[in-house]
Amino acid sequence: MKLKITLLFIFSTLVAFAQPPAGYYNTATGTGFTLKTQLFNIIKDHNDQGYNAIDNFFPIADLDIYYENDNTILDVYSENPNGTDPYNFFVFNTCGNYNGEGDCYNKEHIIPQSVFSSNTPMRGDAHHLLPTDGRVNGFRGSYPFGIVGSNLISQSGISNPTQNGSKAGNNINTGVASGFSGVVFEPIDEFKGDIARIHFYFVTRYQNLISNWSSYAMFDGSSNKVISSPFLDILYSWHINDPVSQKEIDRNNTIYQYQGNRNPFIDNPQWVEVIWGNSLSVPVSATQFNLTIYPNPSNSNRIHIESDSILDEIQLITINGQVMQLIQNPSQQNNTYTIENISSGFYFLKITSDNQSVTKKVIIN
């Protein structure tokens, strides 16, 4: 009990006083990859505490004060945000050895160590290190993150999906995830935005090194865009559908005190679109027709489409490729078409006219 009280006091102190200093982002004035480089210059040269120091960091930054509020270790691979967790770890339940899920927790590199050959300062960077169940961490291995279909993989000693619903299997290779059919790992929805923003931080913080690292399916070998298709589309959709949480804000503040840099995409989530918006791979036909979609993002449950052309068909498609609404020969008023009763989320809007089609991103808040 005495240990828990001490850790909580440290955590509260760090969060209370850790905010970006005045002017921290003053030089972040550009757009596109210019902005990404400006952010790199702001967050580089962090104070590397080393890999082993993370063991002392987790009990400060990664206690569950958000769900059960029981001060156990918050593990994104075992947390059940809507009910009782399948198991819990206290700060002293670190691995050693493990045989099955729920035995102990260890350090999960969201970007696998094999990508950067376990070199510093990446290996000890708290922004992409999370405490996770040792067995699930081993199950994820070095698989990229993606959207798993029905073709799950098997591995001795673990269920798939895991006890909180995280799973591994072949990427669905359709919709937003088109272009990759290999094995991927998918966390539960509650933490998908967290995983996405960790990636956006990582490829910004290490843009000066990343093009020289080992081949990795999620990276394209460049130093600017870095995240390859379809993974950029997947991460972007996760970022939109799972907005920044208080957990991420608090952890970002604590990391700033710990190693002296911040994740700018937690502080300013809109920068993801500003930097990578033009690189999102949305299939577009060779022939365009005059088209305006508004408002986007929308704060209502409807979309208005203006076009000089007579539209033959409108499809509203989810990130998993499911057609939510199909409108054939839609009616128009003053060259405007309206789709209503849309739930909040990230969609593709496929519009067809005279055998030509165009697909646009749509965000409903």
TrEMBL record:
Q: Where is the Secretion system C-terminal sorting domain?
A: 293-364
Xref: Pfam families:
Endonuclease_1, Por_Secre_tail
Q: Which UniProt keywords apply?
A: Hydrolase, Nuclease, Signal
Enumerate the SUPFAM superfamilies for this protein. His-Me finger endonucleases
Q: Which residues form the signal peptide?
A: 1-18
- Which molecular function terms from Gene Ontology are attached? hydrolase activity; nuclease activity
Asked if Transport is a keyword of the record, the answer is: no
Residues that span the membrane, as ranges: none
Domain of life, source organism:
Bacteria
Into which family does the record put it? Belongs to the EndA/NucM nuclease family.
- PANTHER family (UniProt xref): ENDONUCLEASE-1 (PTHR33607:SF2)
What name is this protein filed under?
Putative secreted protein (Por secretion system target)
Species of provenance: Flavobacterium lacus
